[in-house]
Amino acid sequence: MSPLSRERVLRAAVAVADERGLNALTIRSLAQELGVKPMTVYHYVATKEEILDGIVESVFGEIELPVPGRDWREELRKRAVSARAVFRRHPWALALLESRTQPGPASLRHHDATIGTLRLAGFSVVMTAHAYALLDSYVYGFALQEAALPFEGPDAAASVAEPIMETFPDDEYSHLAELAREHIMRPGYDFADEFEFGLDAVLDALARMRHGSP
Amino acid sequence: MSPLSRERVLRAAVAVADERGLNALTIRSLAQELGVKPMTVYHYVATKEEILDGIVESVFGEIELPVPGRDWREELRKRAVSARAVFRRHPWALALLESRTQPGPASLRHHDATIGTLRLAGFSVVMTAHAYALLDSYVYGFALQEAALPFEGPDAAASVAEPIMETFPDDEYSHLAELAREHIMRPGYDFADEFEFGLDAVLDALARMRHGSP
DNA sequence: AACGCTACCGTACTAAGTACGACGCCACCA
DNA sequence: TGGTGGCGTCGTACTTAGTACGGTAGCGTT
């Protein structure tokens, strides 16, 4: 238990958000998780905003850093897979990205390692910016879609798609119906499997950019 | 003014969110925008959740639909550019994606048109799923990053980056510092310009996937 | 002995979402 | 003509948030 600390407050906040969602993260629920009264929390953080900033920063800290100088493709792949896993563990973090302004040390270190990996791989400064934007857009966007899905895991899609499909005749939205019928609702389908396929396509694109025009 | 309606309620909700952010969208602020008292709103929607679902659906309706059968690349490009513009107008919509479950007709039409475009372009069912996931991940992710940026437009980055850069010595985060110094903070830099570059790389990737393995 | 610091808490104010029960107006029928 | 029922609107009040303000108890310093 120890005398509480900013760190413990943030760790508890992450735990509450993971278990019960961002909406359930209130000063009161956080205080309860910590075994103290609400106002006590305010001795370690100034506002709730600061808590939100803090937990996003701590989530960034969980992402595995790429090592500049090693095989760039392997390092960036590792980072992307790790980031996606982290956002899957903490889906609420994506919704918080918008509200943040000041990056903390974990974010800065993260950016520096990724940029360094691209630079040492031979990407020009301008190409590094292009590559980074493309790669992160893909990772964030995939994580966002995954978080937005109302189901998770193999075969879960079918039970969600079924009732939706029944709200309209088969000839309306026929392409959508076909995809659902012949792929999404088939046993074994898991949206999560799309990640690595798209990631490799993006990494291929980066490889081609590496020596392209500025 | 007319006797109010669900449509007008949703339009007003979008306006409030656009102008003052998602947090400022409350039943009270919405009622004020409509010129009525709070409880009146509840004659057109059951809960605030329904309002949130409704405005996301209306945002989806703003995205230009691709036309299946025409040049696939051009159609998908048009749709992506339009989607990105829509999310830029309504950045709050991205944060709402996670909370939605039941897609409305606008979303269904949208998905159907996009899937149809891919299918008629010769993508197999499985490849269509791959391609769609990749393309939308990129678009959503880019939009999310753009929404998270604390600045907007050319040259705005410098004034934001400057104070951050000064919080650490130049030799810490040296790669990040280099990129900032030699690119981001240079006059004329605009993150928005990255979009089309990455989009074309993604479309190239799709073109290669078109006749690839399943 | 007085002071002040650290960790914590009680009370209360304000802003939200929304349940519940009215109230005024109008079309329609007797 | 007078009722009557429904529709759009609203007043009041309850509940759950964030958090300002002002404590209090325990302990070390001078």
Detail the topology: elements first, then pairings.
The structure is a homodimer of 214-residue chains.
Chain A: H1 6-20, H2 27-34, H3 38-41, H4 48-62, H5 72-89, H6 92-97, H7 105-120, H8 125-148, H9 156-165, H10 174-184, H11 194-209
Helix pairs in contact in A: 1-2, 1-4, 4-7, 5-7, 5-8, 5-11, 7-8, 8-11
Chain A binds a DNA duplex (30 and 30 nucleotides) through helix 3.
In short:
2 copies of one chain form a homodimer. Helix content of chain A is 67%, strand content 0%. Chain A has 214 residues and is mainly α.
Descriptive account of the structure:
The structure is a homodimer of 214-residue chains. The first copy, chain A, folds into 3 domains: 46 residues, Arc Repressor Mutant, subunit A, CATH 1.10.10.60; 123 residues, Tetracycline Repressor, domain 2; 34 residues, no CATH class. By secondary structure, the first copy, chain A, is mainly α. The relative contact order of chain A is 0.10. The first copy, chain A, is built from 11 helices and no strands. Chain A starts with 5 loop residues before the first helix and ends in a 5-residue tail after the last helix. The interface between A and B is large, with 58 and 59 residues. Chain A binds a DNA duplex (30 and 30 nucleotides) through helix 3.
